[in-house]
């Protein structure tokens, strides 16, 4: 099917059901009453409707407006368009709604002049295919183009390890695994593929990469970080180039998307027990630090993201910062932190893109809603992710401007930054989805890159008597649920926000990969099948999927192995001469009391859709080359432990990893 051209309305406007509320990106417990929120939005929309109509600005000229002239420099186009906009139109550009909030009546996009929509985790079209996505996004876009100035919509999605909301997309290992590869070129290539697969389905903007520095493995987002050392995170920021290209001019093509560096700043460095969000313990907590340490650990990746890669958008964190210089006890939420958002990020560092708030993040600020909006916009926030409150947001924002509590110059600055991104993405010239590359989604070529990433991420931590690599066609006994569960090995942020167990995406499990190398494989999830006659045992332990603070240790989670995993190790390693243990998890687990029972121990991370890449190193098709991107604790109580600590005695040191590469 050819891509729709500017001015055309797509032939089908699919009717998607709203996502289950537990799948959306609500930062609290996700107990969001979606229908109630939409109802409130309708009430607020009615209030906004009494404002002066959007079309009541200057009459249209017979000549094309300069902002529509692609030959002009982007700053001139932005200046011309900004001068034509009413305050109401500017407010609409600063609002981002969840697509389910407008899906019942898409004319709301036109009425409010919305600048952006997003798909939260699990918010997908009824037909979760490339075509279903593109039809959905184009239908929304047609409503944005029906506005007076025809400003196109910017559509955002969480493509955090591939276009992971789309069933059939290539799903890559999560970031912590990619940190173990120490291969910036591979990371760049991975995100080029993610950009292609995402943009070919409609979205032009991804909420990635996470450039946080994880300093406590009890954090439920640990796997979203590249590692505990800011230098490693900086090295892996080639991911931004993979998304956007070498310069922003590249973003207008069908192979690129707008990237988002997140979560500014310090979200991987929050103190255990400091979170005040629901039952979370670490996520959305408080970073207690001095400014010098904050610059060195937490801020450093953003300097590179801005100055080297010119990242187009940045998402401030839910977390807070409490400076020790003025005494502990007065933390400031990042969404309200003018010093860091405006003075440091936009001023000292020189960020010229736009800031997008996290999911309803401003609702966590003190005061009533108008105060929350005023505080955040004056701190430097440019676009507000208000999934079910966009009309209310616009109304509050306009009220604050008219009351003189928010300067029009601040509004103009925010809108100019947003419009710049839209011009650089080429949306004014090509607003609808370019579907020419949709056929490459999940292609063998793309999956081959993911399989290589899996292989390079494997970290060999123990290998007694050269237990690995295994010989081909020996009799293999495989135990553990995670050996044959593609949902578990993909982890959170896969099809839905939290992810789920089971065959939720196409791909190969670790067991599938082992069977590609041996014709004699016995599989028993609970190690209840007889082990006699087996030459080698492979026990796959690990975690089930989780995301964000839901996965915080102390919030129903632990770093310890489950009793079932311990029993499987005891059974298999006690009965078979050669025993290999693989850990499929989003972070290191406590294996101190079981390590002696295994001949070989491998950290396999969350490999994504291509579990066969694990078997590639088990059987020697590829060598083990991965190195730990984090320090491995002896006990859960040892956290936080990081390289450079005064009393540094981990089970495995940061950077540790055995190799089977004869060249090393």
TrEMBL record:
Question: What would be one Pfam family of this protein?
Answer: Glyco_hydro_3
Q: Which Gene3D superfamilies match?
A: Glycoside hydrolase family 3 C-terminal domain, Glycoside hydrolase, family 3, N-terminal domain
Which EC class is this protein assigned? hydrolase
Q: Superkingdom of this entry's organism? A: Bacteria
Q: What is its EC number?
A: 3.2.1.21
What GO biological process, any one, is recorded here? glucan catabolic process
Enzymatic reactions: Hydrolysis of terminal, non-reducing beta-D-glucosyl residues with release of beta-D-glucose
Residues annotated as domain Glycoside hydrolase family 3 C-terminal: 459-659
Region annotation Disordered: residue ranges? Answer: 1-29
Q: Residue ranges under compositional bias (Basic and acidic residues)? A: 18-29
User: Which residue range or ranges hold the Glycoside hydrolase family 3 N-terminal domain?
Assistant: 86-420
For molecular function, the Gene Ontology terms on record are: beta-glucosidase activity
Q: What PROSITE patterns does UniProt report for this protein, alphabetically? A: GLYCOSYL_HYDROL_F3
Per UniProt, the keywords (alphabetical) are: Glycosidase, Hydrolase, Signal
In which family does this protein belong, per the annotation? Belongs to the glycosyl hydrolase 3 family.
Among PANTHER family, the record links this protein to: LYSOSOMAL BETA GLUCOSIDASE, PERIPLASMIC BETA-GLUCOSIDASE-RELATED
Which named protein is this?
beta-glucosidase
> What is the species listed in this Swiss-Prot or TrEMBL entry?
Actinomadura syzygii
């Amino acid at each position: 099917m050819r891509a729709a051209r500017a001015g055309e309305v797509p032939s089908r406007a699919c009717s998607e059901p709203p996502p289950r509320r537990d799948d959306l990106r609500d930062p609290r417990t996700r107990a969001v009453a979606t229908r109630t929120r939409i109802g409130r939005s309708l009430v607020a929309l009615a209030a906004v409707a009494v404002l002066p109509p959007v079309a009541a600005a200057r009459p249209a000229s017979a000549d094309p407006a300069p902002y529509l002239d692609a030959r002009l420099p982007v700053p001139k186009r932005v200046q011309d368009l900004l001068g034509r906009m009413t305050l109401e139109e500017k407010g609409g550009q600063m609002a981002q709604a969840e697509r389910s909030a407008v899906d019942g009546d898409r004319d709301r996009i036109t009425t409010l002049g919305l600048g952006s929509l997003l798909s939260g985790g699990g918010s997908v079209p009824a037909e979760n295919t490339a075509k279903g996505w593109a039809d959905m996004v184009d239908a929304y876009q047609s409503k944005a183009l029906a506005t007076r100035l025809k400003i196109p919509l910017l559509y955002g999605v969480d493509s955090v390890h591939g276009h992971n909301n789309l069933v059939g997309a290539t799903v890559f290992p999560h970031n912590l695994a990619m940190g173990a590869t120490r291969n910036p070129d591979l990371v760049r290539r991975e995100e080029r593929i993610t950009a292609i697969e995402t943009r070919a389905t409609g979205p032009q903007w991804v909420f990635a990469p996470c450039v946080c520095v994880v300093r406590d493995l009890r954090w439920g987002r640990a796997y979203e970080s590249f590692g505990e050392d800011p230098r490693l995170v900086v090295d892996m920021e080639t991911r931004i180039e993979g998304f956007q290209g070498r310069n922003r001019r590249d973003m207008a093509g069908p192979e690129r998307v707008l990237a988002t560096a997140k979560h500014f700043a310090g979200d991987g460095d929050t103190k255990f027990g400091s979170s005040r969000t629901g039952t979370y313990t670490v996520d959305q907590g408080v970073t207690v630090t001095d400014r010098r340490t904050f610059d060195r650990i937490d801020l450093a990746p953003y300097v590179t993201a801005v100055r080297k890669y010119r990242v187009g958008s940045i998402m401030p964190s839910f977390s807070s910062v409490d400076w020790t210089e003025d005494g502990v006890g007065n933390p400031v939420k990042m969404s309200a932190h003018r010093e860091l958002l405006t003075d440091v990020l936009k001023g000292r560092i020189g960020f010229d893109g736009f800031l997008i708030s996290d999911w309803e993040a401003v609702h966590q600020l003190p005061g009533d809603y108008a105060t929350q909006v005023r505080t955040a916009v004056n701190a430097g926030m440019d676009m507000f992710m208000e999934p079910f409150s966009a009309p209310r947001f616009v109304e509050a924002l306009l009220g604050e401007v008219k009351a003189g509590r928010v300067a029009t110059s601040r509004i103009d600055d925010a809108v100019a930054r947003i419009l710049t991104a839209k011009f650089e993405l080429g949306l004014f010239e090509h607003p609808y989805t370019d579907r020419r590359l949709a056929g490459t989604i999940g292609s063998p070529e793309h999956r081959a890159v993911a399989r290589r990433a899996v292989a390079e991420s494997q970290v060999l931590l123990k290998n007694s008597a050269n237990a690995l690599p295994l010989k081909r066609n020996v009799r293999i006994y495989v135990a553990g649920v995670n050996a044959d569960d593609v949902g578990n090995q993909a982890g959170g942020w896969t099809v839905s926000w939290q992810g789920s167990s089971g065959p939720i995406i196409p791909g190969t499990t670790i067991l599938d990969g082992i069977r590609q190398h041996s014709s004699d494989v016995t599989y028993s999830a609970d190690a209840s099948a007889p082990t006699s006659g087996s030459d080698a045992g492979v026990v796959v332990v690990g975690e089930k999927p989780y995301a964000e603070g839901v996965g915080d240790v102390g919030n129903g989670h632990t770093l310890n192995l489950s009793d079932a995993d311990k029993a499987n190790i005891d059974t298999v390693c006690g009965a078979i001469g050669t025993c290999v243990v693989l850990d499929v998890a989003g972070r290191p687990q406590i294996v101190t009391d079981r390590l002696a029972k295994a001949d070989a121990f491998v950290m396999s991370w969350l490999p994504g859709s291509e579990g066969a890449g694990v078997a590639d190193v088990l059987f020697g098709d590829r060598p083990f080359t991965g190195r730990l991107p984090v320090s491995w604790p002896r006990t859960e109580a040892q956290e936080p432990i990081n390289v450079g600590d005064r009393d540094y005695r981990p089970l495995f040191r940061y950077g540790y990893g055995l190799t089977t590469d004869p060249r090393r």
